[in-house]
Amino acid sequence: MSIRLRINLVLFAAFFAIASAAGWYVNTIFMKQTNEHVVKQAAILMESALAVRSYTVDLIKPHLDPLLEQKFLPQTVPAFAATETFERFRKKFPNFKYKEAVLDPTNPRDLADEQERAIIGRFIENPALQDTSGELFRSQSRFYYVARPIQIKNPACIACHDTPERAPATMRQIYGDKGGFGWKLNQVVGAQIIVVPAFEQDAAAKDMLKTIAILFAATFAILLVVINLVLPGRER
User: Fold this and answer.
1) Which CATH number belongs to the domain containing residue 203 in this structure?
2) Which residues of the chain, if any, have pLDDT below 50?
3) Nearest-5° angle of CA 169, CA 191, CA 164?
4) Which of 47, 165, 171, 173 has the most crowded Cβ, counting Cβ within 10 A?
């Protein structure tokens, strides 16, 4: 076996070993950065939704509540305000989602799906749990979610969600008397869920990894050519 062949075999073995180790390490770093980025996005959007809720409770609801007997205005409901605001945001960023998912909602659009019911179940099983997060896969695409419990802490909420008879007649004219009743104080009835796309960041990380791999392979190829030009073709 010639010296050139031996060296080439050693170089190829070293290349694959280094490339495998470096690829694993770089991919781990990229995935960590991707997850940190989407978690930060989700947390910021969650705080934005909470700010809309707080604004509605403090500055909108007190002015519109006196009209409740004449007309029910959904704009006084914090969940409605946060959801409607986010729907306008989604017109430009459709892969993001905010939902106040409820097991037995007044508004049918808030009804929790199977994945959301599982998230709500965590809060019901563990009342001390303040938030939870994790991955969701929809249409083979990876998303990340952050969720917080919807817990009835304000006694004023019971007025609309205790029994149909106690609820405002104007509200029942819009939503009926079948859903959103029987709630109790301190009961967890749902979850605020922010969903952000992780697959977009995953694709960017893969593109960067592919670029690094190409540069690494090109560098190795050039090094291999130079070494082969310097080495003798056969042993003497």
Assistant:
1) 3.30.450
2) 236
3) 20
4) 171
